[in-house]
Amino acid sequence: MNLDPIKIRQDFPILQQKIYNKPLIYFDSAASSQRPLQVQEKIRQIDQEYYGNIHRAVHYMADKATADYETTREKVRSLINAGTTAEIIFTKGTTESVNLVAWSFGEAFISAGDEIIVSEMEHHSNIVPWQLMAGRKGAKIVMLPFNNKGELELDKLPGLISEKTKLIAVAHVSNVLGTVNPVAEIAAIAHARGVKLFVDGAQAIQHLPVDVQALGADFYAFSAHKMYGPNGVGVLYGRKELLEQMPPYQGGGEMISEVRFSGTTFNELPYKFEAGTPNITGVIGLGAAIDYLLEAGIENISVHEQALLKYATEKLMQIPGMKIYGESKNKSGVISFNVEGIHSFDLGTMLDKMGIAVRTGHHCADPVMQHFGIPGTVRMSFGIYNTREEIDAFLPALKKVISLF
Ligand code: PLP
């Protein structure tokens, strides 16, 4: 079955509007994707029919909200093929998931002099939490570089691992270069040396089938707002055996078993890592987003986005002065580029006036910009609802903007 973007677009009324009197072209799904009516409807239903705080009450609405919340945990487990729902922790987003692991794994497993390997193509949220932890623990961050095509230099990885290395942190898909990293291969290298693997899946989960066990990820993180779900919700998958050894990240309600002034015992997994009232509506909305993704078919989404990527890349390459960053053979639907002599910010601002939403700047990945010696790029990113016709409308708009400089 092929994906029909025309039909899909009917689920996204937000895309059917004009911006500055021009039909909106939304090429910024890597920053945040739009939400279909099905997700909006689920949230409306909770707000109007059965909102209540979860886990703690006996009344009907709290019970129903709890059931939906826990059903979503099972949907996430199944989506990524985790072994058990005890391994699925709801967070605010990828950023909080990384911070949770950096802090808690750091407390449990990192001592002064230990090393963490972080790839050069990471989003700041998969760099800074490790730096904070390293600062606290007296550990060291070691960088795994990428080449000019935007592919990790995996041949260098074994040489970077020492007996001090405890963990490797890497993106499944780069938010700037689009590179799909060979996570299973990295996991094999890491595990052969007793090193754990943290995978940032923020740009993968909405584009590719993800199987955390097949990938060999010890931890895997993603955000609902990049997969057609609500903002303010994310997931951390962690291997049970590791999560069990890690201390709670935050204290509060729900994460405890018994509280005494003489000492507190903690709840079982995953609740040990979910202190306080979570984003109930958001998590249930994520459940609806997963249903939506599965209904469309992740393989179908992947085929559709790959076709857009290929088409747009070929057309863009014909523009004089065009430089595309990220030329990996295995790439997802993200194109970062610059046009010689024009600042990315100016390009993005003028495209906006033509109804086209792209991202400009460093994309929270300063080290990638430093690698190429540039201040920023224009980034177009595709989602389930984008069409070839939008690319056809984008190209003359881009050429017009270029001609104005
Ligand atoms: N990691 C990657 C690869 C991303 O692209 C992003 C967001 O752009 C993040 C992490 C941070 O996600 P969030 O802001 O949802 O926590």
What does this structure look like?
This protein is of the alpha/beta class and 405 residues long. It folds into two domains: 5-35 and 297-404, Aspartate Aminotransferase, domain 1; 40-294, Type I PLP-dependent aspartate aminotransferase-like (Major domain) (Aspartate Aminotransferase, domain 2, 3-Layer(aba) Sandwich). It is 39% helix and 18% strand. It has 14 helices and 17 strands. α2 runs antiparallel to α10, α3 packs across α10 (280-296) and α4 (94-109) packs parallel to α5. It is globular and about 70 Å long. Bound molecules: pyridoxal-5'-phosphate. Residues 31, 93-95, 123, 125-126, 171, 175, 200, 202-203, 223, 225 line the site of pyridoxal-5'-phosphate. Pyridoxal-5'-phosphate is lined by residues 31, 93-95, 123, 125-126, 171, 175, 200, 202-203, 223, 225.
User: How far apart, in Å, are the first and last alpha carbons?
Assistant: 44 Å
What's the alpha carbon Rg, rounded to whole Å?
22 Å
Low-pLDDT runs: none
Class from secondary-structure proportions: alpha/beta
Write out the CATH superfamily name of the largest domain.
Type I PLP-dependent aspartate aminotransferase-like (Major domain)
Q: Can you tell me the CATH topology of the largest domain?
A: Aspartate Aminotransferase, domain 2
Number of helical regions: 14
Shape assignment: globular
Name of the CATH class of the largest domain: Alpha Beta
Strand content: 15-25%
Largest β sheet strand count, sense and barrel closure: 7 strands, mixed
Ions, cofactors and other bound molecules: pyridoxal-5'-phosphate
Number of individual domains: 2
Q: What CATH architecture of the largest domain would you give?
A: 3-Layer(aba) Sandwich
Mean pLDDT: 97
Percent in helix: 25-40%
Subunit arrangement of the protein? single chain
Strand order of the largest sheet: 4-10-9-8-7-5-6
Give the total of beta strands.
17
